[in-house]
Amino acid sequence: MIDTIVFDIGNVLAHFCWEDYLVDCGYSQEVIDKVSKATVLSPLWNELDRGARKEEEIFAEFVKLDPSVEKEIMAMYKDALDLVKEFDYAADFVRTLKRNGYKIYLLSNYARFTFEHAKKIFKFIQYVDGGVISYQVKYTKPEAEIYQTLIDKYKIEPKKAVFLDDLQANLEGAKPFGFHTIRVESHEQALEDLRKLGVRVD
Question: How does pLDDT run across 150-163, given as a tens digit for each residue?
């Protein structure tokens, strides 16, 4: 019987809307492509999630990748709140699960500069019992250490827990520990898959 729900955040409870942000800034397609390539689409971006290096240093390296868009790159750092948006259904979804008696935890790859801002406005945060965010522990999914950290910190029994994530690689990382897993492709599909596991979602 499932008694614990573990959520990824990005594309599960909130949208990492960096493409919308760049469009809303009014940049030309050329600038959007340059900024994207130097930041989010760069392997360096994952280092922000890991949190082992100073974010200022990483953004300086982004600028080195394409100095012609330095102003736009540094604006992303300043405009952290505009890079993530909570899904409309997220708070009610998590609140309902909490009301139905489930323990709720977060397990997400997130950079400090976005999460520290986002957690102040994400409404679902008030209903969770805790979580492990990558930058805080210097591990990222699907590394085994981040799952073990969550299990140890909250005394979770993986066989009684289900982990929801939008990336299959992250779900594969959870399976050796015994977690039930759901790949989230839509909210409706996630609800149906939870019901199949006997989770009360209404």
Answer: 999 999 999 999 99
